[in-house]
Amino acid sequence: MLSPYYVYVTTNEKKTVLYIGVTNNIQKRLSQHYFDSENAKKSFAGKYNCYYLVYYETFDSIESAIAREKELKKWRREKKDRLISSFNPNWEFLNQQVV
C-alpha cells in the first residue's frame, strides 16, 4: 500500500502564524520545519517557527491533497481557525501523535 498524502497545518508556539503544506511523510516534513526554524530560516515555516502540528487530513492521491491545500490557503484566518478547532478543540500540538 502506498503512503497516504497529508495536508497539514502547523503553527508557532504562540499560535499566531499558520503554515499549510502537503507531504507524503509528515514526520520527516515536521523535522525539516523544525531544523529550518533552528538553523537556516530560509522557508516561511522556518522563519516564523511553524513546526507545531495542529491539523491534518489524509488523502489517497497527491492531486486531491494539492487541491485541498490550495483550497485551504485561500481561506481567511477565521475560517482556518474554525477548521482547526473542529478537529483539535484545544489546539494541542499533535507532532507526537501522527505516525
TrEMBL record:
Transmembrane segments: none
Residue span, GIY-YIG domain: 3-82
CDD domains (alphabetical): GIY-YIG_unchar_3 (cd10448)
Similarity remark: Belongs to the UPF0213 family.
Record-given protein name: GIY-YIG nuclease family protein
